[in-house]
Amino acid sequence: MEFIFKANVEVDPDGGYLVTFADVPEAITHGETLDEAKISAQEALGLALRGIVQEGGNIPRPTATAGEPIAVNAEDAVKLAVIEAFREAKISQREFARRLGKAENEVRRILDPDHRSKLSQLQEAMQVLGKTIVVSVLEAA
């Protein structure tokens, strides 16, 4: 699971730059400078994807081929990956809690896209789901 989406960055007639994502139309943002617009785009993308998941939707797959690549921040990417892996596993939260050896309320927090979880908890959750987290570091755009 990679969380890099192509952004359409346009000069805004009112000043600055407007950023949209074909694959995530909920993510729309603006910045006075190009750098500011890219930072805002990363934040807007993460917020939109967390909102989609919060409402029970599926994370869209990046399909756009043109545009500026924008990566979801690492914290959001790992959390979203855990939620996606949990959904793919088709198990209940109760069963997930049992496998993790944790209380159900802890599992609800792990699966809440807006709750900050420790990386160690997310790694453990991925292992229980038969997945592993791999980190890639790319050159900044």
**Helix-strand makeup class:** alpha+beta
Shape: elongated
Give the count of helical stretches: 5
What would CATH call the class of the largest domain?
Alpha Beta
How many β-strands, per DSSP?
4
CATH architecture term of the largest domain: 2-Layer Sandwich
Low-confidence stretches: none
The CATH topology of the largest domain, please?
A: Double Stranded RNA Binding Domain
In helices, the fraction of residues equals 40-55%
The profile of the biggest β sheet is: 4 strands, antiparallel
Count of discrete structural domains: 2
Distance between the termini: 20 Å
Instruction: Report mean pLDDT, rounded to a whole number.
Output: 95
Strand order of the largest sheet: 3-2-1-4
Order of helices and strands: EEEHEHHHH
What can you tell me about this protein's structure?
The chain is 44% helix and 15% strand. The protein has 141 residues and is an alpha+beta fold. It folds into two domains: 4-71, Double Stranded RNA Binding Domain, CATH 3.30.160; 74-128, no CATH class. The chain has a four-stranded antiparallel β-sheet, covered by helices on one side. Strand 1 (4-11) and strand 2 (17-21) form a beta hairpin. Helix 1 (34-54) runs parallel beside helix 2. The two termini are 20 Å apart.
List keywords for this structure.
single chain, 141 residues, alpha+beta, Double Stranded RNA Binding Domain, four-stranded antiparallel sheet
Chain-wise SSE layout:
Layout: E1 4-11, E2 17-21, E3 28-31, H1 34-54, E4 68-71, H2 74-89, H3 93-100, H4 104-110, H5 119-128
Antiparallel strand pairs: 1-2, 1-4, 2-3
Helix pairs in contact: 1-2, 2-5, 3-4
